[in-house]
Specification:
Radius of gyration: 21 Å
Number of domains: 2
Oligomer: single chain
Shape: globular
Distance between the termini: 25 Å
Strand content: 15-25%
Largest sheet: 5 strands, antiparallel
């Protein structure tokens, strides 16, 4: 399932591609009948909240975003959802965001006389739930868990069910309200921190990779109850998470290792499908076998101490951890003091 940074990248791509434009909206698959309600409207904004995407649409560009006339297409990609893009050069700056890594229109008959893809001639695939077509390109959505039209109160109801998202505007502002919400939510529960981090009501946008890597960077036992953790430690974890996710939103890649650790035990236990990330084909990026400390490294030696990385089910997903490094239970880890979050970036 795409993690929160992916959805923020998706919102940015849709804003670049269609923002302020009148868009044609259809459902080639036929399973999104509400497309007819918003076809021909103007895309006012694309917004991400955790793993949820909202496309704000109105009859004209001058409609106030808070007007009851505004409708929101709400999308949750789930495990299999994906957006694919095609258009003029520079349109959306992406070819695919989500589960499958495919490109639109590579068939020979869709090329123009000059051998260049003519996106205007692309025929939608029968699996496309939602299709957006603008002046410079198109985007197609397949396989989402949710795709629906909401009014303003409906959008707000979804937001009210979510915890704070470190990538939302002002989430890390001087007021610190979202940071406090996260700290207080964790500390008032006996539930293990490794379970709480996967609860979108506690913090929105974290998936299995960020959970495993954030806990390792904090040197924190995944099974310690949230109420046993200090406010200072959780505050530091929020800071680290915000930096990790901001890097992911910028680059489309999750990279959590310090540069000096990347060549240590540079291995990963791949599934048959592999742990794919944006830019894997680019030799200049950090390869996935060097990107993580513990994620999908079960049975391999820890990069730092050599202890065998372990894994087990926790909150319906597999958690990965080093039993020696991650022994901190109620105090702030020395390693995070020595390596502030801002220093990890490439």
């Amino acid at each position: 399932m795409p993690e929160g940074h992916t959805v923020h990248r998706l919102a940015a791509a849709l804003s670049r591609g269609f923002g302020g434009e009148r868009v044609r909206i259809s459902s080639p698959q036929g399973r999104f009948a509400e497309a007819a309600q918003v076809d021909g409207m103007v895309l006012l904004a694309a917004e991400a909240a955790g793993k949820h995407l909202f496309l704000a649409l109105a009859p004209s560009a001058d409609v106030d975003p808070g007007s009851p006339m505004v409708r929101h297409i709400h999308v949750h990609l789930g495990l299999y959802g994906s957006w694919t893009f095609a258009g003029d050069p520079g349109f959306a700056d992406a070819h695919a965001i989500g589960a499958p890594r495919v490109r639109l229109g590579e068939q020979e008959e869709e090329l123009g006389d000059d051998g260049v893809l003519d996106w205007r001639r692309l025929v939608p695939r029968p699996t496309v739930r939602l299709r957006l077509v603008g002046a410079r390109g198109l985007a197609e959505l397949t396989g989402p868990t949710a795709c629906e039209v909401l009014d303003g109160p409906g959008r707000q109801a979804v937001l009210d069910r979510l915890g704070p998202d470190p990538l939302r505007p002002d989430a890390n502002g001087s007021g610190g309200g979202d940071r406090r919400r996260f700290v207080e939510a964790v500390r008032r529960s006996r539930t293990a921190i490794g379970t709480q981090l996967m609860d979108q009501k506690v913090v929105a946008g974290i998936g299995n990779i960020y959970r495993a890597e954030l806990l390792f960077r904090a040197r924190l036992d995944p099974f310690v109850p949230g109420r046993d953790l200090s406010a200072g430690m959780l505050d530091q974890m929020w800071t680290d998470l915000a930096a990790l996710m901001a890097y992911g939103a910028r680059t489309g890649r999750i990279v959590t290792t310090q540069p000096e650790h990347r060549d240590l035990e540079a291995r990963i236990v791949e599934r048959s499908r592999g742990t794919r990330q944006n830019g894997d084909e680019d030799p200049s990026v950090v390869p996935r076998e060097k990107s993580f400390y513990v994620y999908h490294r079960q049975s391999l030696p820890c990069r730092l101490c050599g202890t065998t990385i372990r894994s087990r089910d926790l909150a319906a997903r597999t958690v990965f951890w080093c039993p020696r490094c991650q022994s901190v239970r109620s105090r702030r880890a020395a390693w995070t003091r020595e390596h502030p979050a801002a220093e990890w970036a490439l």
